[in-house]
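Meet the record:
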Amino acid sequence: CEKLLNEFEIPQTKGVTVSGLPEAAKAAEELGFPLIIRPSYVLGGRAMEIIHTMPQLLSYTGWTAAAAGGRPILMDRYLPGIELEVDAVSDGENVLIAGIMEHIERAGVHSGDSMAVYPAPTLPVGVKNRIIAYTEKIGKALKIVGLFNIQFVLYEQQVYVLEVNPRASRTVPILSKVTGLKLVEVGTRLMLGETLTSLKLPKGLWPEPDFFTVKSPVFSFEKLSSVDTFLGPEMKSTGEVMGCDFVLGKALYKVLTAVYGKMPLNGNIFVSLSDNDKESALPLIRKFSSAGYHIMASGETLKYLKKEGLDSEAVELGINIANLRGMFKKGKVQLVLNTPTRGSSSERTGFKIRRAAVENRIPSF
């Protein structure tokens, strides 16, 4: 696939395959951090991690299993851009693209755990045309017959291929319902020898509707007490829902209501952010404040918000966040906004905050 992409001058993230730590350390210096690292034989993002430093690379837990099985480790440059997903069908000669979906979370969150919007709300026309062209070239070159899925990342105005899957994806039911295009039936008929022409279907991008659809994952965190709710490359969702509306915000509200059972439009929001995310999260917190939410915070997050002139109430977490947990139980907090420091140990304060929010059915982002 790498050879094919190079032939068509289609960008892809740089990556290598390594067989041990010494080789990995050398590759990391050449590729540069951050990196996405994973065993070569897993599904669902199992044991996949985003690595930011050499010490993290050396402590990566996947080495033991890989060494025991004599299998390699894959290392790719991580690009923190906008992830885009395409579902398409091909008869081996022509390609029909059912839709381009834009993920809300930045790249690095497993596609099964990401919220995705169709049609892509922020995609420039030029970028959309590039994705269409890349999808058609790849489908034809690989002579795919039937359904296939491609995941891209948009980073600094460049479109990179993340992965090509010659199979149906989990977003096929969503796009089928929204577009009216019976993708499973079409894909099956193509595999049985029919063509897009014989099925009287066009090639290129299927016409986009004038409303938005949001796909949201559903989790079972309340039943899995030891699982961190923070999302990353390893898939954690157990289902999904969809919401449609002519206004993107309303479509998003519908899926969040389906996931959480309620979505308060005002009240108290507790904020706890890692140093890496404070600056980028500030505009969002200001929007919560202007929308009528009362901001609550502790520690370094509280200091940062006050320094930036954002009125915030100080919260004393207490031993093992006992005070905060009590506030959650009494209904004094309606939303939680939390981003973790590196690592998800159950002893970390952030882990306890996220778990307490889930156990008290408080929407946590």
Notes: Residues 320 and 349 are 7 Å apart (CA to CA).
